[in-house]
């Protein structure tokens, strides 16, 4: 039986693209729940990482990065993260200590204040402090402080695991008394299929440069348990047109072969099993598979 009383809360991690939100989520839950690359827009949907210990459960939600979207209105864009904003007890705004914080972040904070949502604690995590001098960091903190009054400011490096314990302890200390939403052994809300899809998508993002938009989809069509220690996985990769398909396949299939080797290794490490991986590149237009 679980001991009482129980504390639990939702922390939504928000920030511009590439500031280290997914790196922060992974280091907080000590597992690679969300994929990381050096590219912008790696995360394309909300991903939960759950940390349960002693009598506390914290649900962290990683979100797609904010950016100034010229084609769409910001309101439209914000709809991708809005549900994670409204359900949160805490918002953890992540900024890159080396970059100027764009207005899109302050606009979001303004919208949250205007909406009269139930009170949330809003904290700031200045990330990548391993790359910045103390002087610059103080200036940066002052600059942000002048624009918005956060409940608390932390200086962290998600890459070097610096300042993470302080951040975690702070959330733990301020958790509301609430029932746990997940059993204690659950670390992610992602199914095995979804996690395997994300591993392959990560390798694609790392291998393919700017020729293909980031919104490639991967789906696991079949996962066969060949034995206790071996899986056979069939995945489809969906792109939007023939040109993107040709780029992904490459000359004499070299690109897809290299993606397949990289994804297989990644999945083997993740599952601790031997993997046979079969990839097929297909074209999907407006949600319909055409090839
Ligand atoms: N030097 C340094 N690099 C970091 C740190 N945290 C993250 N990075 C790097 O920053 C890049 C982006 O990290 P992500 O965690 O994918 O960033 P994100 O905010 O989730 O990005 P999107 O999903 O695209 O919005 C990767 O190359 C990370 O290794 C840090 O504390 N220090
Ligand atoms: Mg991310």
Would you give an account of this structure?
This protein is α/β, with parallel strands linked by helices. It folds into two domains: 7-174, P-loop containing nucleotide triphosphate hydrolases (Rossmann fold); 192-289, K homology (KH) domain (GMP Synthetase, Chain A, domain 3). 35% of the residues lie in helices and 26% in strands. The protein has eight helices and ten strands. It has helices at 21-29, 74-86, 103-114, 134-147, 164-174, 192-207, 242-249, 254-271; strands spanning 7-15, 47-53, 56-62, 90-96, 121-127, 152-155, 217-227, 230-239, 274-285, 288-289. It has a six-stranded mixed beta sheet with strand order 2-3-1-4-5-6, with helices on both faces. Strands 7-8-9-10 form a four-stranded mixed beta sheet. A hairpin with a 2-residue loop joins strand 7 (217-227) and strand 8 (230-239). The protein is globular, with a radius of gyration of 20 Å. Bound molecules: guanosine-5'-triphosphate (GTP) and magnesium ion (MG).
């Amino acid at each position: 039986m679980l001991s009482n009383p129980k504390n639990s809360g939702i922390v939504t991690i928000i920030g511009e693209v590439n500031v280290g939100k997914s790196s922060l989520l992974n280091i907080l839950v000590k597992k690679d729940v969300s994929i990381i690359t050096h590219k912008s827009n790696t995360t394309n949907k909300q991903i939960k990482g759950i940390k349960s210990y002693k009598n506390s459960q914290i649900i962290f939600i990683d979100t797609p990065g904010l950016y100034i979207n010229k084609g769409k209105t910001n309101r439209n864009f914000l709809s991708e993260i809005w549900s994670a904003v409204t359900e949160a007890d805490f918002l953890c705004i992540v900024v890159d200590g080396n970059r100027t914080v764009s207005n899109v972040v302050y606009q979001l904070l303004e919208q949250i204040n205007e909406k009269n949502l139930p009170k949330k604690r809003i904290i700031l995590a200045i990330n990548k402090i391993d790359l910045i001098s103390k002087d610059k960091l103080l200036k940066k903190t002052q600059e942000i402080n002048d624009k918005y009054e956060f409940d608390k400011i932390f200086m962290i490096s998600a890459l070097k695991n610096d300042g993470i314990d302080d951040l975690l302890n702070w959330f733990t200390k301020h958790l509301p008394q609430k029932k746990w939403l997940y059993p204690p052994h659950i670390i992610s809300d992602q199914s095995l299929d979804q996690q395997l899809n994300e591993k392959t998508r990560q390798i694609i993002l790392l291998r393919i440069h700017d020729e293909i938009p980031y919104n490639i989809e991967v789906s696991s069509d079949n996962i066969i348990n060949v034995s206790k220690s071996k899986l056979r996985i069939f995945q489809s990769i969906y792109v939007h047109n023939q040109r993107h398909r040709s780029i992904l396949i490459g000359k004499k299939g070299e690109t897809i072969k290299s993606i397949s080797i990289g994804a297989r290794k990644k999945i083997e490490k993740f599952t601790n099993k031997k993997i046979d991986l079969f990839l097929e590149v297909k074209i999907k237009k407006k949600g319909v598979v055409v090839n």
